[in-house]
Amino acid sequence: MxxxxxxxxxxxxxxxxxxxxxxSVLPPFFLKMARSALDEMSDxxxxxxxxxxxxxxxxxxxxxxxxxxSGRYHLYMSYACPWASRCLVYLKIKGLEKAISFTSVKxxxxxxxxxxxxxxxxxxxxxxxxPGAEPDPLNGAKSIREIYELASTxxxxxYTVPVLWDKKLKTIVNNESSEIIRMFNTxxxxxxENAALDLYPSHMQTQIDETNEWIYSDINNGVYKCGFARxxxxxxxxxxxxxxxLDKCERILGKQRYICGxxxxxxxxxxxxSLIRFDEVYTVHFKCNKKLLREYPNLFNYTKDIYQxxxxxxxxNMEHIKRHYYGSHPSINPFGIIPIxxxxxxxxxxxxxxxx
Length: 356
Ligand SMILES: N[C@@H](CCC(=O)N[C@@H](CS)C(=O)NCC(=O)O)C(=O)O
Prior knowledge:
The protein has 356 residues and is mainly alpha-helical. The chain has helices spanning 4-12, 82-93, 144-151, 177-186, 205-220, 222-228, 232-252, 266-275, 278-285, 297-307, 318-328, and strands at 73-77, 101-104, 110-111, 119-120, 163-166, 171-174. Glutathione (GSH) binds at residues 36-37, 52, 81, 83, 120, 158-162, 175-178. GO terms for molecular function: glutathione transferase activity. Glutathione binds at residues 121, 158-161, 176-177. The active site is at 81 (nucleophile), 224 (proton donor/acceptor).
């Protein structure tokens, strides 16, 4: 566990310390840690995501603290969540289903304790209560919050998914999806059914890292900055950057099949999880309505292309996605009405094989 101080350190990167953070930069969670994404707000009304806390690594080295053993780890996730979904995509396309088990929570946040007002991810009480979701098979927990409390008695951050759980040491290994996908990509190759697939090959790493940076900031997190902004200025700034980034993707994808060239890479999976949610959710719920995904020919066909990679469509549960966003943020959608949507068929033909 990191201390409260080191969490602030992590959130702002290594350059910043308490001493050089001015009070106008210090977010409210310095005084009271954010308990949900809806609390992560700067004084200017902009959404400010806090860093994940559990940052251990599974290793292919059998002598490491967390060796890559089959059957040892469990992914707690939500089909609704883009960050958790990217981990599930990796689990499926790397052929790790037999090695790493997973459970999805229910899509709509509920009260996690009678004694306070926190709402968050909960498990169904039975196998049949919620299609796609299952009761916690390992710890019998009622909520993801309980999983964090089992791993640490003094945890004060958000109770986010994904959570990579170690069944042997009964603790959380890691709750940061960008790191979990890297572990899934390389560390389980002795047991992965699709070990040859490398989505972060050394010759592409610089390009993938650079691409991830603007896609994360302007698209993956950019849609949240639009949706959770509490003032017009930060919303407009985020929306401008979002659409500049989408236009850039559209241009790139007019010249090549994938975002970093003609080979599928990590950057594609990271982009995909946001695109697949775009028209059904972000356009309405997060006010990203300058243009729809389906108005971008290259991006739209590209989304279908990734969706049709064997294993990927099974990670997309649009029911969970829609019910989560429209049903879990009452300050944005007080009546929980789910817009009817366009019900896009991502299995329909696409034109991306023109690049081969
Ligand atoms: N940095 C984390 C972010 C995960 C995250 O924000 N998950 C959201 C769901 S989409 C969550 O669990 N939020 C719970 C909350 O805000 O209380 C990662 O990428 O793994």
